[in-house]
Fold this protein.
Amino acid sequence: MSQPPFVVGKPVTGEYFVDREKELEKLLSLARGLEKGSSSNSVLIGLRRTGKTSILENLAIRLQSNPHMVTMIINCYGLATKSRFAKLLVDIAVACYVQKTGDQAYLKRLTRVTSEKVKAVLDRVSEIRFSEFTLKFRDSRTGEDSLIEDALRYIESLAIEKNVFFVVMIDEFQDIIRWGDDVLKRMRSIIQSQKKVQYILAGSATTIMRNLAYDRRSPFYRQLVEIPVRRLDQQIVREFLKKRFVTVHMRIADSEIDKIAVYCGGYPDYVQRLGLELYLALGENGSIAEEHIDKAYEDMILSLDGEFENYFATFSPLEREILLTLASGSMKVSEVAREVRRPIFNIPKTLTSLMNQGTIERPMKGQYRLADPVFGDWLNRRFKPIMVQD
């Protein structure tokens, strides 16, 4: 048996990773700038399921061969508190540094530097900062914003002391933005002065992330290099599918390849999922026909039912009504208002909020539609009535 030709549920690397070389090269170039003293922080912006996390994972892999570069990835999705974020910054920085360098002695020292008695005789800056952070974290009176500042300073002190560079990748950064400008201002004041640490802020709430970089009121205004992550071109999807099916000797006509590409809408996650559904259904040497694709697509939507249901529940009642309406196709504001039975002046603000979250998009002026076609199909199957013919 060959290994499955597609990967689902985790970041993809190697032969499973497709068409993100330009984004990777930009990030690698910025990392090289960090070593030369010309560090620039960046923002990676793309819709959900477009492969941002895979780009970060592949960047970490590409930088493994550089002995002076320590990479770390923090996923902030659903992160509840600022203190937890600060703790993750410190813990992951230590773990990644030790894994990269094998410096177990440093790890052992850290286990002894959290008491006031030991702190008094410390002479290494990073250990002092680690000790101070740990004591503050245990003290409920310490402000959470202060913990974030201390965590960021600790990473820089470790980089300086050990003569390494850190590339800190913060995924789903929109969950940090919701904590407000005060947090962002504190972060920027530290980040912009650091010489041996580079930050990549990645997020799927596209409008919110672009405002982070380009809104004059944003603390990070003109502080970040934008790297957009767009949906895959249809031809790229077709070529990728053909190559992957060939590895397991599965036969498929060009017309069926086109059908899969249309179903997936350029989203790498759906390409992987639908491809895997077909492989699991037909196996090696299988011959893929149109009816197999339709069945696999239905099975894929069914497998996403729990995830989509939880996602849909996060929206307000009016937002849910608008999403159900737009599942039928693109609409004008007036058409949306009529369908949800609300005054038209109530609608634009909610549409803007949904755009900020990356849930809907505006393909042309005055028109709105769901950004994710598979989510739209799930809405139609889950909530629209089934018409029974005589």
Remarks:
- The CA atoms of residues 70 and 99 lie 9 Å apart.
